[in-house]
Amino acid sequence: MTRPYGDDEGDDKLHEECGVFGVWNHADAAALTALGLHALQHRGQEATGIVSFDGKRFHSHRGMGLVGDNFNDARVMNSLSGNRAIGHNRYATTGDTVLRNVQPLYGDFVFGGFAVAHNGNLTNAHGLHRALVRRGCLFQSTTDSEVFIHLIAISLYSTVVDRLIDALKQVVGAYSLITLGEDALMGVRDPLGVRPLILGKMRSPEGGTAWVLASETCALDIVGAEFVRDVEPGEIVVIDDSGVRSIKPFGRSPSRFCVFEYIYFARPDSIMEGKPVYEARKQIGAMLARESPVPADVVVPVPDSGVPAAMGYSLESGIPFELGIIRNHYVGRTFIEPTESIRNLGVKLKHSANRGVLAGKRVILVDDSIVRGTTSRKIVEMVRAAGAAEVHMRISSPPTTHSCFYGIDTPERSKLLAANHDVEEMAALIAADSLAFISRDGLYRALGHEGRDPARPYYCDACFTGDYPIALHDLGENESPQLSLLAEAGR
User: Fold this and answer.
1) 3-state secondary structure the chain
2) What pLDDT does 342 receive?
3) Residues 67 and 188 in one domain
């Protein structure tokens, strides 16, 4: 069963699909993992889970909803005993959000217990699934993450590491992976490093060093861990009682880190691939101001993701920055509204106009992206209703013209506004006086490069360019994210 993009038209954003976290050699491993998942809540809000190991048994708790809804009970936390644990936050794009799809996934193997937490998409999962079912494998979930479990189970190699390598060499896609076995915690990034993964360390209460793997540095900060380094593209980091070692079974490939981490996905206080995200977003906003100036009285961010870019735009342009839109932080997904007139009020659950800032002003609205345009149109209408004289929309990413198949929730291409309309048409559709996006070259310059070199793009920017760096095996000739397993990774 396929779920439409988002739950309602007000949810008109791209969504990261999950966050992963793991701890080795700390008496409070599960509690630290819960804290790390709290810090990574923005990467997935539909379900969460933790698996721990106490030296004899694995323990698991998985549940629907937010981290705080599932790991705020002392009985739950006490049941997750052991000095090593991994956790996962899930955001699903297709299929039902049900407990069987919540990670970490766990299996009992010949060599012992093994848990997997996965972020990303496997683009050959459909074919692998068919082949594995023909071999007699019984799938318990509808996530392509379970492909890893079965590939490891049927591998003929003797060690856990070799079985994992064997599985990785059969999958194609963009992913980061944290696994927990009886003897080791392992972290993996795909050969192009599209999805993030970092290594940290902290002092263990028992003495010695506790090691941490996480999607972002903000998760290290919350547990008091020190950033060590990024896990490299194509690298397997093996952590056990003897320390940390690195295996690189894929050889070297140019990195294609997801550029949308800088624009929107990562938390502003994280550092991604050596770049502070907050500063990167301000630089993107400043570049946007240089490329697309417009006479105005006030720069207003669409909160929260538009705030740093709007600050950069304001500083570069000299136009005052104001909070002309206030976000309600206590609203999750918009309820299912029964009528069109009520449904159109849904955006006001999340955003309210600050009339005193907007009335009579020429307003520059700064946002991170336009996907279908539904939210942008309602925001523009709301700002006009508050008395704005003019409304100019500025977007801190290039136009989103292609669907993502690497772990980001996007609609099919026919529903992407920029795939079907030019900028002037889009401006008319969202009822803005003007609309401008940062250019591809401008985005790269803001991130410290001379521009976008097609021969060396540095980032995965397929959603802007259609340049898919990883083969889309499951798509065949049809560009549709509706295939049952293609877009179901990391859940």
Assistant:
1) CCCCCCCCCCCCCCEECEEEEEEECCCCHHHHHHHHHHHCHHHCCCEEEEEEECCCCEEEEEEECCHHHHCCCHHHHHHCCCCEEEEEEECCCCCCCCHHHCCCEEEEECCEEEEEEEEEEECCHHHHHHHHHHCCCCCCCCCCCHHHHHHHHHCCCCCHHHHHHHHHCCCCEEEEEEEEECCCEEEEECCCCCCCCEEEEEECCCCCEEEEEECCHHHHHHHCCEEEEECCCCCEEEEECCEEEEECCCCCCCCCEECHHHHHHCCCCCEECCEEHHHHHHHHHHHHHHHCCCCCCEEEECCCCCHHHHHHHHHHHCCCECCCEEECCCCCCCCCCCCHHHHCCCHHHHEEECHHHHCCCEEEEEECCCCCCHHHHHHHHHHHHCCCCEEEEEECCCCCCCCCCCCEECCCHHHCHHHHCCHHHHHHHCCCCEEEECCHHHHHHHCCCCCCECCECCEECHHHHCCCCCCCCCCCCCCCCCCCCCCCCCC
2) 55
3) yes
Domain containing 49: what range?
A: 15-256
**Could you report the per-residue pLDDT of 268-315, keeping only the tens digit for each?**
999 999 999 999 999 999 999 999 999 999 999 999 889 999 999 999
Same domain assignment for residues 354 and 401:
yes
167-223 tens-digit pLDDT: 999 999 999 999 999 999 999 999 999 999 999 999 998 889 999 999 999 999 999
In-domain check, residue 264: no
Q: Quick one: pLDDT band at residue 346, thresholds 50, 70, 90?
A: low
Global confidence as pTM? 0.90
Q: What is the mean pLDDT of the chain?
A: 89
Q: Would residue 412 count as lying in a domain?
A: yes
Per the annotation, the verdict on 218 as an active-site residue is: no
Q: Are residue 219 and residue 309 in the same domain, yes or no?
A: no
Of 199, 233, 256, which residue constitutes the final position of a domain? 256
**pLDDT per position as a tens digit, 91-109:** 864 445 678 889 999 999 9
CATH of the domain at 134: 3.60.20.10
My answer on whether 231 and 102 are in the same domain is yes
Any domain includes 470: no
- Number of folded domains that form the chain: 2
